[in-house]
């Protein structure tokens, strides 16, 4: 349907007393119109920093040091803040992880929904209020006129999350970025929020980038999946490929840690160890200290991407031998 967002070899670093430390290390991906890409991985693997880089909302000590971010053919990394404001909340919108901290406690819901309309449209006062009511209705909130007058603390967690979605959709964005949109919500509200985002994607033809560590959420909404570890993309593929034929040991570990309610004898498996710090120097594959299949080569050389199918690739030396065996079989067949 056409590429909306194209990120190539993105490196995002943070200035610290120890120098510049990379949090995102050469990440590349694309998102098409009407497609949902889920970015998955443990907390601290670089998922949110990747999306904040796209939005131009990095902390003061963060900066994009390499790579490009192209949105609808426009390069975003070279744009100044006032130029980015024209896109942010208009063409590209974001639902933040915790609505209680993302919403301003001293302004009403109505004021905050109408803020992007004030910035990006020329609607009159009555038209803006009508649009706000329409948005709240669209996200499934009853009595929207009453909700407009309320402050964030007067709403439940699910209602606040729906308000965040309404704000993000105010200007009919082409791309919606959702950073852990169902965190801290109960399972019933979680399912409603995910269904709402999916329905709106279908109705508006948006591209969606969803950040999550919940593989259940991924199975529910994703078209494609990008698995990140320690700032690197270690595997990408369609949702069917990732769940049915995972290739990278880290992806297999994430899937093994998902509870299986249908199997009473299923034991949860944990990935040993923890994510490396940004200043931790690890040669070779950054996952090798935690990998049960690590070889000497893994500790010495960073693996390239091995292509399984057109859309499925994995960054692991284990596939080198498989690829070599397949080549030999083809040569003798």
In short:
This protein has 333 residues and is α/β, with parallel strands linked by helices.
CATH topology of the largest domain: Rossmann fold
Beta-strand percentage? 15-25%
Q: What would you report as the Rg, rounded to the nearest angstrom?
A: 21 Å
Order of helices and strands: EEEHEEHEHHHHHEHEHEEHHHEEH
| Low-confidence runs | 327-333
Report the major sheet: 8 strands, mixed
* CATH superfamily caption of the largest domain: P-loop containing nucleotide triphosphate hydrolases
The first-level CATH class name of the largest domain: Alpha Beta
Helix content: 25-40%
Number of strands: 12
Question: What form results from the Cα inertia axes?
Answer: globular
Number of helices: 13
CATH second-level architecture of the largest domain: 3-Layer(aba) Sandwich
What is the topology, as strand order, of the major beta sheet? Answer: 6-7-8-3-9-10-12-11
Q: Helices and strands: which structural class? A: alpha/beta
User: What is the end-to-end distance?
Assistant: 39 Å
Mean pLDDT reading: 90
Structural overview:
With 333 residues, the protein is an alpha/beta fold. It has 2 domains: 3-91 and 171-332, P-loop containing nucleotide triphosphate hydrolases (Rossmann fold); 105-170, no CATH class. It has 13 helices and 12 strands. It has helices spanning 47-55, 81-87, 99-102, 109-120, 125-138, 144-148, 157-169, 187-204, 215-221, 239-244, 249-256, 296-300, 318-332, and strands at 3-16, 19-32, 36-40, 62-71, 74-75, 92-95, 175-179, 207-212, 224-229, 232-238, 306-307, 313-314. The two termini are 39 Å apart. Residues 5-255 form the ABC transporter domain. Belongs to the ABC transporter superfamily. It is a peripheral membrane protein. Its main location: membrane.
